[in-house]
């Protein structure tokens, strides 16, 4: 729940640095400093929630909601008091970042013109973060321990895992990615610190939860899912036909259907559609056919098992296999003739 | 007495929303969807109060509040279905409902204000009670007084329910050990369904009350549902601690909102209630009393 707050906090620190530091540093250094400050700030902020969870047993949902608000209000206070601000009717805005720190125009082409590469850099950061998280979670020792703690805390404790340290670490890792998000939001998209004046926490973090649910919590699947979601959002925002307020509604509907995905495991849609198309009588014949085929299969299955079919020569295999297929073929023809009889000669 | 009224208004909203969370968590179901349900409640309060605006304002007012609760308790059936029947993770379902409700609120607010000018004021849909909010009895505004009385009565009822009635004790037991309740021959899932529906009703009423604070509905309730969730945990799942902590929180919030201190920036003052409740959580962390089976799915075979 705390991604928005961590993003805000990291972005605020980096914004302070970017608006107060000298602009004449070597090219690329400013961007690197901003990146590091964002990531470290967000990590520290997430670490607070991790420590509260591990050592004081405060539910992370509550502490991160509180920390979201604290970061949200802190950004407004900092922008009002320490940074030259541009007031808008609905938004509070800082002065724009200079080119030495923002990522928007990072290279120049042959004619010396700046190219807007921000989008590509953001996409690269997305892919890098996703792969990074995948590697940490599935290919390292500490990732394995994190999964153990997540699946069964007591078992992990019994196996000698330092559960408290691992929970703090996983919170900080999540915060680091929130810091990357801060780079994308404040230094690539907005190019300044900005926030709504209405008391609404920025929605980036909450959309992130939705996307990770849509991706079934698989870090690599998050790449295409977030790309599709971004495409959807951009399409609706630029469309004249669809109301732009439809974005959140569509995501909500999508998400509730994904949350209900296990409903599809419960009903056999193929049989249901068959019954719908062909009617009850023919459906029963079809069910009989399926049952008969299963019986034949299980009858021959014993033969396959007992005789260790994978070690037999080819002609021996066909001695079992051919009668098996023959029997199924007979059954199929019987089913076909029965259903033909039912439909009165028509197919 | 601006401060008193602002405090009472905010505290009764937070109180009802937190009690909604309490009601479902006592039956073992995490209800992160409170914020979404409050959005639904606020939206239906606006619509019903405008559509049924008759001569008897008090009747319309109470009727719209109840309808806000009813619509939200219909909406929460999704949460019940997903968590009780399909046994999906409660936080996943709650997040999905929050997004769905937020999207629905935003969409309908703009759609209705574009197509039904009678209930809109340009920024979003509105309700007919904003001016009447100012009528007062003595120190109190009428509506705030009604709200805090409703909040107090509901807290009293819920406290009595959990402490002295058989149904309430069984309800709390479902949150602690559903299999024990099951082996005593009672239907766990039925209790869970009832808890979820009543939780939705309370959240919807809280959302309807929020409209008196917001005035215009433009698709959100300022994240008050999440704050209420925090207050429920701050209150250690006990009715009276929730009651008083919501009043204290609202008081701190109202002070920051109404008074301007020259030496301290307003945003820093606004931070105080959040920091204070974090500190209170740290201090109270030794007395955690969350229901044991909260967030777990009821499995008959796990006796």
What does this structure look like?
- The complex is a heterodimer of chains A (347) and B (303).
- In chain A, a hairpin with a 3-residue loop joins strand 1 and strand 2.
- Chain A has 347 residues and is mainly alpha-helical.
- The relative contact order of chain A is 0.10.
- Chain A has 14 helices and 5 strands.
- In chain A, helix 1 packs antiparallel against helix 2 and helix 2 packs antiparallel against helix 3.
- The model of chain B has no long low-confidence stretch (mean pLDDT 85).
- In chain B, the strands form 2 sheets. In chain B, strands 1-4 form a two-stranded antiparallel ribbon. A two-stranded antiparallel sheet of chain B has the order 2-3.
- The chains are: A mainly alpha (347), B mainly alpha (303).
- At the A-B interface, helix 3, helix 8 and helix 10 of A face helix 4, helix 5, helix 10 and helix 12 of B.
Layout: helices, strands, pairs:
The complex is a heterodimer of chains A (347) and B (303).
Chain A: H1 3-20, H2 29-56, H3 60-82, E1 85-87, E2 91-94, E3 105-108, E4 114-116, H4 118-139, H5 141-151, H6 153-158, H7 163-190, E5 194-196, H8 204-214, H9 222-237, H10 246-259, H11 263-266, H12 269-278, H13 280-306, H14 314-342
Antiparallel strand pairs in A: 1-2, 2-5, 3-4
Helix pairs in contact in A: 1-2, 1-3, 1-7, 1-8, 2-3, 2-7, 4-5, 4-7, 5-7, 8-10, 12-13, 13-14
Chain B: H1 2-25, H2 34-51, H3 57-75, H4 77-85, H5 90-115, E1 125-126, E2 136-137, E3 140-141, H6 142-164, H7 166-176, H8 178-183, H9 188-214, E4 216-217, H10 224-234, H11 239-258, H12 266-283
Antiparallel strand pairs in B: 1-4, 2-3
């Amino acid at each position: 729940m705390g991604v928005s707050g961590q993003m805000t906090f990291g972005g605020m620190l980096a914004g302070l640095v970017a608006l107060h530091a000298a602009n004449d540093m070597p090219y690329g250094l400013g961007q690197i400093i901003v990146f590091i400050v964002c990531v470290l700030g967000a990590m520290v902020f997430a670490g607070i929630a991790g420590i509260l969870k591990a050592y004081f047993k405060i539910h992370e949902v509550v502490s991160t909601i509180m920390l979201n608000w604290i970061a949200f209000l802190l950004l407004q206070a900092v922008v009002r008091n320490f940074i030259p601000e541009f007031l808008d009717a609905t938004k509070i805005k800082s002065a724009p970042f200079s080119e030495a720190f923002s990522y928007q125009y990072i290279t120049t082409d042959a004619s010396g013109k700046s190219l807007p590469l921000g989008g590509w850099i953001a996409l690269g950061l997305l892919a890098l973060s996703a792969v990074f998280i995948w590697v940490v979670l599935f290919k390292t020792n500490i990732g394995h321990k994190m999964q153990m703690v997540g699946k069964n805390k007591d078992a992990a404790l019994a196996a000698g895992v330092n559960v408290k340290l691992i929970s703090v670490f996983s919170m900080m890792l999540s915060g680091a990615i929130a810091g990357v998000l801060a780079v994308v939001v404040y230094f690539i998209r907005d190019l300044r610190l900005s926030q709504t004046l209405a008391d609404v926490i920025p929605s980036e973090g909450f959309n992130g939860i939705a996307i990770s649910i849509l991706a079934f919590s698989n870090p690599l699947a998050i790449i295409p899912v977030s790309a599709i979601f971004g495409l959807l959002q951009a399409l609706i925002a630029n469309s004249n036909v669809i109301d732009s307020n439809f974005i959140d509604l569509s995501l909500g509907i999508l998400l509730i259907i994904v949350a209900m995905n296990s409903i599809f495991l419960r009903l056999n849609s193929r049989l249901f559609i068959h019954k719908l198309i062909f009617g009850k009588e023919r459906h029963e014949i079809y069910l009989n056919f399926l049952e008969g085929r299963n019986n034949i299969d299980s009858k021959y299955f014993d033969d396959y098992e007992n005789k260790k079919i994978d070690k037999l020569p080819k002609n021996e295999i066909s001695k079992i296999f051919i009668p098996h297929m023959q029997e199924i073929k007979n059954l199929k023809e019987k089913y076909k003739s029965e259903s033909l009889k039912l439909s009165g000669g028509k197919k | 007495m601006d401060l008193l009224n602002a405090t009472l208004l905010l505290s009764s909203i937070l109180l009802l929303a937190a009690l909604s969370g309490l009601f479902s968590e006592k039956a073992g179901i995490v209800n992160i969807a409170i914020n979404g349900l409050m959005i639904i409640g606020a939206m239906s309060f606006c619509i019903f109060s405008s559509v049924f605006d008759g001569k008897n304002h008090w009747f319309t007012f109470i009727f719209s509040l109840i309808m806000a609760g009813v619509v939200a308790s219909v909406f929460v059936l999704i949460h019940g279905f997903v968590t009780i029947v399909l046994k999906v993770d409660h936080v996943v379902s709650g997040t999905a409902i929050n997004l769905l409700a937020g999207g629905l609120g935003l969409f309908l607010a703009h759609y209705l204000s574009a197509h039904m000018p009678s209930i809109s004021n340009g920024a979003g849909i509105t309700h007919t009670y904003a001016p009447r909010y100012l009528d007062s009895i003595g120190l109190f505004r009428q509506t705030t007084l009604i709200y805090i009385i409703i909040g107090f009565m509901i807290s009293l009822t819920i406290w009595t329910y959990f402490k002295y009635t058989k149904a309430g004790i069984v309800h709390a037991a479902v949150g602690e050990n559903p299999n024990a309740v099951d082996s005593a021959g009672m239907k766990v899932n039925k209790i869970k369904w009832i808890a979820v529906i009543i939780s939705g009703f309370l959240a919807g009423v809280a959302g309807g009350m929020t409209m008196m604070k917001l005035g215009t509905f433009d698709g959100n309730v300022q994240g008050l549902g999440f704050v209420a969730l925090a207050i429920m945990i701050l209150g250690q799942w006990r009715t009276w601690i929730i009651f008083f902590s919501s009043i204290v929180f609202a008081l701190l919030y109202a002070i920051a909102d109404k008074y301007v201190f020259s030496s301290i920036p307003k945003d820093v003052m606004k931070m105080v209630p959040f920091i204070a409740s974090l500190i209170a959580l740290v201090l109270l962390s030794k007395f955690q009393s969350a229901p044991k089976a909260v967030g777990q799915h009821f499995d008959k075979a796990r006796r």
